[in-house]
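STRUCTURE:
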């Protein structure tokens, strides 16, 4: 990925303000998963191979007893619905930010093993059944399947553990 006016300079990781095809804009993502994944794309570009970095943005953070993972991207004011799945009072839930019933981003709080499905929901750009999204009795994979999008293979980015 060359993000400079000089095509001989390539950047990856925190320093790169790169065009993101999925988001349709330039974005600088200062997180570990991005720093781990972008260099392969930069290397391909250096070799003259067609390559674009389009991973769904992702980060995790551990704050004492609070473990959070965030997938996707939503700019301030860029959503018109927030859907909670799980128990927000017990801080064991997933929050989804949606626009026109499409999932733009989600944060799982003390909920594990859902990141690949969440990323696929974000990537699909398909409207979802928000009642099913909020219902912990409906597996997220079923919410995704109802959009007609096949689930993704595990990326290895997410933490492991029970959903609830
Ligand atoms: C305190 C802290 C906590 C974080 N926690 C999380 C987290 O929980 N989850 C998460 O996803 N991300 C987290 N991050 C962000 C994550 O660490 C960064 O996104 C990631 O390390 C960026 O990697 P990078 O290789 O792009 O940059 P860096 O890791 O900053 O590497 C850049 C390297 O370039 C070197 N350098 C700078 N200038 C020059 C120069 N002129 N010549 C030669 N070398 C130079 C630097 O010394 C450094 O080694 C955290 C960051 C910090 C600081």
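SEQUENCE:
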């Amino acid at each position: 990925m060359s993000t400079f006016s000089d095509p001989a300079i390539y950047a990856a990781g925190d320093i790169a303000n790169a065009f993101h095809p999925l988001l349709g804009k330039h974005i600088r993502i200062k997180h570990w998963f991005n720093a781990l994944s972008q260099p392969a794309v930069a290397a391909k570009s250096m070799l003259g191979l067609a390559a674009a970095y389009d991973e769904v943005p992702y980060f995790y953070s551990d704050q004492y007893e609070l473990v959070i993972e965030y997938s996707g991207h939503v700019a301030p004011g860029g959503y018109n619905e927030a859907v909670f799945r799980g128990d927000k009072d017990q801080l064991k839930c997933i929050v989804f930010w949606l626009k026109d019933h499409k999932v733009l981003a989600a944060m799982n709080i003390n909920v594990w093993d859902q990141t690949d499905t969440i990323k696929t929901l974000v990537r699909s750009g398909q409207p979802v059944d928000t009642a099913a999204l909020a219902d912990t009795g409906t597996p997220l994979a079923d919410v995704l399947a109802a959009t007609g999008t096949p689930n993704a293979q595990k990326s290895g980015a997410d933490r492991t553990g029970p959903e609830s």
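REMARK: Confidence is low (pLDDT under 50) at residues 160-164.
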